[in-house]
Design brief:
Helix content is about 25%, strand content about 25%. By secondary structure, it is of the alpha/beta class. A hairpin with a 4-residue loop joins strand 7 and strand 8.
């Protein structure tokens, strides 16, 4: 009954006294997976199948991959893991990363119509496992691809996407082609998945003249528009909504319509300036969110273990006055301490209240409207590639659009 059916066939199955109709996705010795008309995937064990009929056989396209390819610029999709490159393991019910990025490519043949699209897996990890080691490897791979003239799309888990996108913003100076991060809040087996639209939109932007790192994700809960965010100004602001990503203290670069029309404004275009790859990131950098009642020893331990520390302070950039004398002594020893705000919107201003003025006198560097995680990545980049004195000066300067020159209220 099951030997002659193949993936792509439309089948009608009577299973556990239910009549089901769908497309066969795959099968093994124990069960088959079909995509129902409502968009959901369903795993069906053979032992409970009463009957099976093939409604229509899958007829593979006779066109070759080369014939399908569109005329658009070449783009390489680099898989790193995350929900966008995940599937449901029906034997356990767990969500697992795909083992081959080509699976994503061939599962979505419309991608090939956009141009010469290739895909490869660089990592197969969840985004919470990202760190400096992986960012350096990713930056090197992306640099190689854009040096060949390819636009690049990085398929990445959403939880730490802004960290990774920021890392590549600093590590690759004057990119010669677009570097686009995208992800998915919902895995591709779900009818409400945002993976397909996000990936198509990201590829379209990767074929443009954008000369910086950007993040492409849903603009709303609907499938009407995608937003193009500057990598150093974007943040995930909701745990599960499809429109979780928002530009903070900045306007979006542009939008992508459902018809894949790209509209961008006020963006950095690819220039003839020489591209440069920085290959180091310091791991001796910390990020601390201050809270009332925080033990001083905890802060001092962070400072003892690291060469630099980003503090996300309250309001305009404050911490307890009880810490300031210790902070001054540590800064005098040569370490870098800088202040951001956990409010996210708005800017640090250490000149308004006495606590802030004392922090300035102690040597704390105010970082304007820079996001805490971006400041953390930037300090890691600076300490990995420049001396301590240069790092102090460059930290408060706008290098990649991470710091607005004019503060927005």
């Amino acid at each position: 009954m099951f030997e002659n059916i193949k993936p792509g066939d439309e089948i009608e199955v009577r299973w556990k006294y239910q009549l089901l109709n769908g497309i066969l996705i795959s099968k093994n010795h124990d069960f088959m997976i079909i995509k129902l008309k409502n968009g959901y995937n369903l795993a069906i064990d053979y032992s409970h199948i009463q009957s099976l009929n093939v409604i229509s056989e899958n007829k593979p396209l006779k066109l070759t991959r080369e014939e399908i390819r569109g005329s658009g610029k070449k783009v390489t999709i680099i898989g790193t893991g995350g929900t966008i490159a995940s599937y449901v393991d029906y034997s356990t019910g767990a969500v697992k990363p795909l083992e081959n990025a080509q699976d994503v490519l061939y599962a979505e043949p419309d991608l090939l119509k956009l141009g010469d699209i290739d895909a490869e897996v660089l990592f197969n990890i969840f985004s919470e496992d990202m760190n400096q080691k992986y960012w350096k490897i990713l930056a090197k791979k992306v640099y190689e691809k854009i040096s060949e003239g390819n636009g690049v799309v990085v398929a990445h888990g959403t939880d730490t996407m802004s960290f990774s996108a920021s890392a590549l913003s600093f590590l690759i100076e004057n990119p010669s082609a677009p570097i686009i991060f995208t992800g998915s809040q919902r895995s591709s087996d779900r009818p409400s998945s945002d993976a397909y639209f996000n990936l198509l939109g990201a590829v379209k932007v990767a074929q443009s003249d954008l000369g910086e790192v950007a993040v492409v994700m849903h603009s709303s809960m609907n499938d009407d528009y995608l937003s193009i965010h500057r990598a150093v100004k974007v943040r995930k602001m909701h745990t599960s909504r499809r429109d979780a990503f928002k530009s903070i203290n900045a306007e979006i670069i542009g939008t992508i319509s459902k018809d894949l029309d790209v509209n961008m404004q006020d963006y950095k275009k690819v220039k003839k300036d020489e591209m440069h790859l920085y290959e180091n990131l310091s791991e001796k950098v910390g990020l601390v969110y201050y809270y009332p009642g925080m033990e001083k020893e905890l802060l001092l331990k962070f400072l003892d273990r690291n060469d630099g520390l980003i503090i996300a302070g309250t309001g305009l950039g404050h911490i307890s006055n009880d810490y300031i004398e210790d902070i001054k002594n540590i800064i005098d020893e040569g370490k870098i301490i800088a202040m951001t705000s956990q409010c996210l919107y708005g800017s640090v201003n250490l000149n308004v209240y006495s606590t802030g003025r004392r922090l300035i006198e102690a040597g704390v560097i105010p970082l304007g409207d820079m996001l805490p995680e971006v400041a953390y990545i930037k300090l890691s980049f600076l300490l990995g590639n420049f001396g301590q004195d240069d790092a102090k000066v460059l930290l408060a300067k706008n290098l990649r659009g991470e710091l607005n020159e004019r503060r927005k209220e």
